[in-house]
Amino acid sequence: MKVFLCGGGAGTQTMEAYKRLNEVIDHSKPCLYVPLAMEQRKYAGCYEWIKEELKNVDIPYIEMVNSADELAAKNMSDFSVIFIGGGNTFKLLHDLKTSGAFEKIEEYLDGDGLVFGGSAGAIIFGKDLEACRLDDANEVNLRDTNGFDVLNGTSILCHYTNQTAEKDEENRRSLLEISKYRKVVALPEEVTLFLNGENIEVIGNRPYFYFKNGAVLKQKKNEFFDISDFFYYH
């Protein structure tokens, strides 16, 4: 299982993460890009964005899906990486689950597939969507908010400390409450966690934050507290 969990950055913020991606990717296969967290009218712009983001990653081309049903019909082993972009996390998870694509991605990961998730595309790999309720509206009335849970019972929040001081404080207070019953990793846009088998690599030049038992620990670069908490079980 190989999953990049990106805090939601772009350009220079994610340069090192893409460099690491290029080191582990199968260069003979294309990338499958999933923009489903965004509104469909924005997909054309999303495709231009991803081409610029991955311009230094050595792959034949990037293929984009335009619906969750299209994604579910794909043979995911044909692709070197599934890149899942940002937008509304509830919409994304709803579309994956109602189409059957959620199970296809699970099978792909179990078969040693590689996924890169940014923002919403990273949050869905946590235990559930509890940590992002202040950032995203559940307009699709998603009830089953459980994610892929690759961090062993830990939820994920992205864009942490990249918003206004007021918003960051609001999120901090919310995460402290949530962490009384659910561990949370809060990632700034400049940080990516790379789950590579049983190892976790921290990529980025800013601290990130780990909320547990009603308290928060500030992590430095290449530092991961209680790594046993994040061992991947499936």
User: Which residue ranges are poorly predicted, with pLDDT under 50 across at least 5 consecutive positions?
Assistant: none
Helical segment tally?
7
Going by helix content, strand content and strand pairing, the class is alpha/beta
Mean pLDDT: 92
**How far is the first residue's CA from the last residue's CA?**
10 Å
Largest beta sheet, briefly?
Answer: 7 strands, mixed
List the strand order in the largest sheet: 3-2-4-5-1-8-9
Order of helices and strands: EHEHEHEHHEHEHEEEEE
Shape: globular
Beta-strand content estimate: 15-25%
The residue fraction in helices comes out at: 25-40%
Care to count the β-strands?
11
Oligomer: single chain
Nearest-angstrom radius of gyration? 16 Å
